[in-house]
Amino acid sequence: MGSRLASAISPYLQAHADNPVDWWPWGEGAFAEAARRDIPVMVSIGYATCHWCHVMARESFSDPEVAAYLDEHLVAVKVDREEHPEVDAAFIAAASAFTPHLGWPLTVFATPEGRVFFAGTYFPPEPVRGAPSFRQVLEAIVEAWTERRAEVEATGAAVAEALAARPDAAEARLPTPAALRDAAIELASFEDPQYGGFGSEAKFPNAPAVSFLAELGRQGDEDADALGRRLFQATAALRDPVEGGAFRYAVQRDWTEPHYERMLSDNALLLDLATGFGDALAAEQLAGFLLNVLRLPDGAFASAQDSESLIDGERSEGGYYALDAASRAGQQVPAIDEKVLAGLNGLAIGALADAGVRFARPEWVDAARHAADAVEARLVTETPDGPRLARAARDGRVSDAAATLEDYGGLAGGLVRLALAAGDPAPAARARALVAACIDGERVRPPGGGDPVLAARGIAVEADLSEGAVPSGAALFADAALRLSGLDGDTALARAAELALAPVVEPALARPIAFGAALATIARLVSPPSQLVIVVPDEGAASELVVQARAWATPGRVLAIVTDDEARAFADAGFELFHGRSTLDGASAAYLCEGTLCLLPTDDPAVLAAQLAATP
To answer: Measuring CA to CA, how many Å separate 129 from each of 104, 289, 361, 429?
Structure first.
């Protein structure tokens, strides 16, 4: 029992390998088995650091009687949403027909053809306040399948038809600056005036939405800037005072009682905000967590750290983090999900690179370089048609899960930022190849297509539009394409960024709290960021120009501090921004461009200060 999961890449699947449930991994085999036995499929979706996933596993999936009933009447499939985001997106979309409370664990029941006829999230082992137990849900599913098959299949067909009928978003025009300001004003309506943050219940950092406000702030919107700073400062309550990493969210409105899992995505995105807002202390804490806790031996970053551990031999959710540094030393450290995800590592690479520049921490840039080398060694394969990404790897093995636009865009964006921070065009050239691999005429999509099991059943949905804690694939791709366009002047890349974001414009303006990263990139398309190249005579040379440039730097701007040789190397690699850039009579020189307009170079700090003061 459970042996099919024992060799899984995902630690989430491995954690269920000893369950008495006869789990199948995601794939054709499970559906073929269901068709052979003429029984439904239960798809259970979660991730390694999901607290309630652990709870449901202990309460129900470890119960031999429940497992025996489940195995007799259904084929059980276990899915790691981080390994298979397309599968998660497809079943989340279908589950929305049955429950407004979407999240994880996600429990979905489908026909052998993959058509969903019922879904929910966590089910308790015993009925609670009107909610049925998991065993009762299973019995109801079996009763419906055996006694009311026609009704079940009609429900599944109706859900599938509704999903298939969703219209493709037509290409949308970019919004006006006024429309973006209106979106920021709507975000302000969600602010909790008493305790800070968004909403009046559980508090999430929502870094993508704050990044949009930060971008408008860069462009001169003082109200958006002030709101973004307040929202970011409120998230300080989520940071572990010992190890610095930010927890997933706070259970209470006043930011107390954190939900203690710590995610690579959250901490990378919050590091970006710390850099943009110039918060050196927050940057130190967040970067410290990435480097000291999530960094793996080869330099890549693990995807998360669990909230649970054993404290004095007793299982505790968050108890480890209530201890001071000395007390933690003798306790079990919460488990690390060592799964390496391409797109999320790209976020961390870019965040560390930009923070290293802003705060003059070359060791952070070096860490970003080592991470990039490790991720590319694990996950990138060169083919005659260009680079191909794998989505995930762990323990020297690569997952067969299809890479998504999140992976291509996230890694490419991180490589561009690394190239600028390190003065090395090679990562930017590799980013350009990753972006090019996703451009298919007037369409933007990852090469090789999506998940084949979903496609074979006609139940795939667009997985890269809406955003939660992580920017969408569309936003990450557009960000990378736009950054590259600014370096080499290729308008086709800016066009690709617009194509990727076109379907997002309308829903993003209607519900900005759910599309922050997309709106941040849209704002940069509407008002292109400034680009500053500082050419210094020697690497690490002290210069007032460099000091000014570091203070000006944000993740939304393009900044490179390079030597003459590095500038020539960028130019030779086809990055037109660096063409003709050199020191002036051996002195450091600044070259500032706004969109397609470039100012005269200067070696005078006072002149540069005036130029930067007049630049968005």
So the answer is: 20, 40, 54, 58
Q: Which residue has the higher pLDDT, 417 or 48?
A: 417
Residues 6+ apart with CB under 8 A from 39: 73, 74, 75, 112, 145
Q: Which residues of 205-229 are buried (b: 16+ CB within 10 A; e: fewer)?
A: bbbbbbbbbbbbbbbebeebbebbb
Residue linked to tokens 């300001």:
181
Strands 443-444 and 336-337: unpaired
What is the enclosing helix (H) or strand (E) of 554?
none
20 burial via Cβ count (<10 Å: 0-12, 13-18, 19+): middle
Q: What is the pTM of this model?
A: 0.90
Distance CA 506, CA 511 (A): 9
- Could you give the CA distance from residue 66 to residue 22 in angstroms, rounded to a whole number? 11
Where is average pLDDT lowest: 70-84, 195-209, 461-475? 461-475
Could you read off the pLDDT of 488-530 as tens digits, one per residue?
888 899 999 999 999 899 999 999 999 999 999 999 999 877 8
Residue 313: left if φ>0, alpha if ψ -120 to 50, beta else—which one? left
Residue 389: strand pairing partners: 380
CA dist 598 and 601 (Å) reads 9
The DSSP secondary structure of 486-497, one letter per residue, reads HHH--HHHHHHH
Q: No. of H helices and E strands in the chain?
A: 24, 23
Q: What are the residue ranges of helices labelled H in 511-539?
A: 516-526
| Mutual angle of helices 342-358 and 280-289, in 10-degree steps | 140
What token pair was written down for 557? 């701007």
Residues forming a β-bridge with 281: none
Q: Which three-class secondary structure state does DSSP give residue 343?
A: helix
User: Burial level of 194, CB count in 10 A (0-12/13-18/19+)?
Assistant: exposed
540: how many CB neighbours lie within 10 A of its CB?
A: 11
Collapsed DSSP state (helix, strand, coil) of residue 83 = coil
**What is the C-alpha separation between 489 and 496, in angstroms, rounded?**
13
Using CA atoms, how far apart are residues 233 and 226, in angstroms rounded to an integer? Answer: 11
Helix, coil or strand: residue 169: coil
